[in-house]
Amino acid sequence: MQTHAILAPPPPGSNPLVSRDLRSADAALEELYAAHWRSLVRLAVLLVRDVATAEEVVQEAFIAVHARWSRLREHDKALAYLRQCVVNGARSVLRRRGTASRYVERQAALREPTVPSPEQLAEIGDRRAAVLLAMARLPDRQREVLALRYYLDLSETEIAEALGISRGAVKSHASRGSAALRTALAHLLEENP
């Protein structure tokens, strides 16, 4: 006699579709994490200028995407959504840092950023240090656009999606940021021949 396994109905209150969706969220985010963690952290470092904080911002972005996975209309755009979460998280960090005394310190640091030590310059190279210092002097939106464009190699459309702005605004910020960056780099290289 052959017995057939009878599938028990799901326990009351459980939804098998939800658990399947969570498994797919876990798998998708594990793949995104493995493939894009470093580039997202680099992006956040450029924006918040602190590795530990950048890692927290990226981690919070992954948590936010996981929590909202079932509401994402197009799962193939999860990376763009992650980038947008990272940029927004970095903005939040910068706003929190903007309290009275921190704001004054930040503004002073932007006007006169600390010059890396000779050992650091030798370690990372003069040009890279100059670019990072010049990037730090840019307004936030220009720095965000240039970081997404040149460090993550995103298209204007992808940058617009990540920042929640139009393609025209991306072009404008990129143009102004590039011009300001060239000027700042020329000035920095004159100071440190």
Describe the structure.
With 193 residues, the chain is an all-alpha fold. It has 2 domains: 18-112, Rna Polymerase Sigma Factor, Chain: A (Orthogonal Bundle), CATH 1.10.1740; 114-193, Winged helix-like DNA-binding domain superfamily/Winged helix DNA-binding domain (Arc Repressor Mutant, subunit A). 76% of the residues lie in helices and 0% in strands. The chain contains 9 helices and no strands. The protein has helices spanning 16-48, 51-67, 78-97, 100-111, 118-124, 126-137, 140-151, 156-163, 167-191. The protein is globular, with a radius of gyration of 22 Å. The model is unreliable at 1-10 and 14-20 (pLDDT under 50).
N/C terminus separation: 90 Å
Tell me the strand percentage band: under 5%
According to CATH, what is the topology of the largest domain? Answer: Rna Polymerase Sigma Factor, Chain: A
- CATH architecture designation of the largest domain: Orthogonal Bundle
Could you report the average pLDDT, rounded to the nearest whole number? 78
| Biggest pleated sheet | none
- Structural class designation: mainly alpha
Report the order of strands and helices: HHHHHHHHH
Question: Number of helical segments?
Answer: 9
- The counted number of beta strands is 0
Provide the low-confidence segments as ranges.
1-10, 14-20
Briefly, what CATH class of the largest domain?
Answer: Mainly Alpha
Return the domain count.
Answer: 2
Q: Tell me, what's the shape?
A: globular
Give the % helix: over 70%
- Compute the gyration radius: what is it? 22 Å
